[in-house]
Amino acid sequence: MRVLILGAAGMIGRRLADRLVHDGLPGRGPVSALLLADVMQPVGPPDLIAEVRAVDIASPQAAADLIAWRPDVIFHLAAIVSGAAEADFTLGYDINVRATWSLLEALRLSGHPVRLVFSSSVAVFGAPVPDLVPDDFHLTPRSSYGAQKAICELLVSDYSRKGFVDGVSVRLPTIVVRPGAPNAAASGFLSGILREPLRGVAAILPVDPVSEVWVASPGIAVDSLLHAAGLSAQGVDGGRVINGRGISVSVAGMIAALRAIAGDAVADLVMLAPDPRISAIVGSWPKAFACDHARSLGFPVDTGIDAIIRAHISEELGGRIGGA
Amino acid sequence: MRVLILGAAGMIGRRLADRLVHDGLPGRGPVSALLLADVMQPVGPPDLIAEVRAVDIASPQAAADLIAWRPDVIFHLAAIVSGAAEADFTLGYDINVRATWSLLEALRLSGHPVRLVFSSSVAVFGAPVPDLVPDDFHLTPRSSYGAQKAICELLVSDYSRKGFVDGVSVRLPTIVVRPGAPNAAASGFLSGILREPLRGVAAILPVDPVSEVWVASPGIAVDSLLHAAGLSAQGVDGGRVINGRGISVSVAGMIAALRAIAGDAVADLVMLAPDPRISAIVGSWPKAFACDHARSLGFPVDTGIDAIIRAHISEELGGRIGGA
Questions:
Q1: Is B54 within 8 Å of B38 (Cβ atoms)?
Q2: How far is CA A285 from the centre of its chain?
Q3: Dihedral of alpha carbons A217, A223, A228, A232, sign
Q4: Which residues of B carry out catalysis?
Q5: Cys-Cys link to B38, which of A299, A313, B42, B317 (CB 3.0-4.6 A)?
Q6: Using a CB-CB distance cutoff of 8 angstroms, which residues of chain B are in contact with residue A241?
Q7: A145, A164, A214, A299: which is the annotated catalytic residue?
């Protein structure tokens, strides 16, 4: 099984590569070769089967070159993130739509309809949304990023319907706890209020603690992509766009779980500093999804915010709380 | 008011041009100049304000040339129709997506966010659909044409959100009675079973007469596009994609109305000859739409299938039934 990861240098891409090297592809067997591509040279897992490649997927020849490697399965995670796509309209469309479309065209012309797992986002939805968003809810994205993801879902589904690719789009929830440095995404604080206190650093909470959010752990996000890659033909028959499973939790609930696990000194490092701009963005996000389709297909889900926090402490902090 | 019609040679485009010349643009005043563009040289209405132009909108320069004419309002009706887009995948995407996107890009670069009325289609929906499709129902197109229209709706809305254009997408129902020769569209028989008998010619009915369909007259389709062009900023605030109003009618009801208006001899020219392929396609179409949004915005609607038939007899047959 030859597997290509596009966007392999990101947090999800790196975790996914590790899983593929160690565990293979669920339902599809071991991975014999892994091509890790990103605009930056990705850091591969320490294994001989992985090849790394720096690729500008906006270039006309890039997609054809990647498909010439003859992947059996492709994970397409490469994207300009929401804030950046909103700030640079042309760059967002070039990478998030034109490059994805070029990939689909290269697959069509190759004549090999391989399984393509496309990493989409709940940003395809826009306010007003019901408290529990059903699987058949309409798309009214309020960001270019969301519009771009929705356009690519339509392309992936139509190319699949025509037999040019065997695609599945998975709309991932907001990922917490993201490791690494804080980023500028509006959702960044949702990781920050857990990650920073756990290493002994104060974190800003810019929204009302009663705010409810829809989240998944990095581990479940990767498991969801792997599950999508393993779906049978019958599995994708009911629709190739899947609302990935998450959990609905209030920000207050996140902090309470942090307090229960790490103590008052850690939880008290979260500082409430309301930001109307971020509050408005977060307030427009769906709070929870029904995910009937994903559940019926056996997609994985986190057991709770406490398990997410414990996994972060174990995986990213070596079990230590409170910094070095 | 300078008005550009893209796809002006089609049935809707010709009617729209006539209306603009004679009645102006509702809520926006008289039309001082009209540019009629199509891949074929359109036939303009007999009026000095109209200029006609043959344009290949797939060419890179075409959109910029049209925008250089400085339209105040654009009606974009140009498309490869469903059957043709399904048969020629590349042509469908070139015209139905890439050319529309080029138009939006030319508008963005021009710096003039003019009102753009984009003619979309209920083909953005796919089975399974409820008996009454709500405005917030999701898009699962079962044709490349439907996927292409959905993609363009997303583009029009996102370019509008960013202020690059002031766009409205209207999803028109199946148009009956289409004048002219029969075409190869799966929906063609819905016009044929009225149009052909009314001129004394037999027509094939390929589906079960109990089939229910969602239709609008050519006149209401044009009125809907004109209404969309006249919507205020407040009017588009609730969403820039609008399910255009139609009426739900059974095929048996259509034939009964034909019989009541034109008599048994005419209605008996409809010959039942079931076609499983067409039955399957028609069976997958939505039967009715709630259209709450369009109703609240005052979009027009036909009063019934009998009025649609009478309008066709008056407008297209000079009041005469049964042929020359």
A1: yes
A2: 16
A3: negative
A4: 145
A5: B42
A6: 140
A7: A145
**Amino acid of residue A49:** I
Judge whether A145 counts as a catalytic residue: yes
The overall longest dimension of chain A from CA atoms, in Å, is 59
**Contact, A206 vs A279, CB < 8 A?**
yes
Burial class (CB in 10 A: 0-12, 13-18, 19+), B41: middle
Contact A149, A156 (CB under 8 A): no
How far separated are the first and last CA of chain A, in Å rounded?
Answer: 41
Q: DSSP letter string over A237-299?
A: TT-SEEE---EEEEHHHHHHHHHHHH-HHHHTTEEE---HHHHHHHHTS-S-B--HHHHHTT-
Cβ separation B147–A154 shorter than 8 A: yes
Measured between beta carbons, which residues in chain A are less than 8 angstroms from residue B88? none
Q: Which residues of A touch B142 (CB under 8 A)?
A: 161
Three-state SS string over A118-144 comes to: EEEEHHHCCCCCCCCECCCECCCCCCH
- Going along chain A from its start, the domains and CATH numbers come out as 2-173+216-243 (3.40.50.720)
Q: Please name which of B66, B64, B94, B72 lies closest in space to residue B8, comparing C-alpha atoms.
A: B66
Report ipTM for this prediction: 0.94
Q: Are B8 and B77 within 8 A, CB to CB?
A: yes
- Give B 139-158 residues with CB within 8 A of chain A: 139-142, 144, 147, 150-151, 154-155, 157-158
State the pLDDT confidence band at B178, using cuts at 50, 70 and 90: very high
Rounded Cα distance between B149 and B147, Å, is: 6
A140/B89 CB distance under 8 A: no
Classify burial at A185, counting beta carbons within 10 Å of its beta carbon; exposed 0-12, middle 13-18, buried 19 or more: middle
CB contact under 8 A, B155 and A147: yes
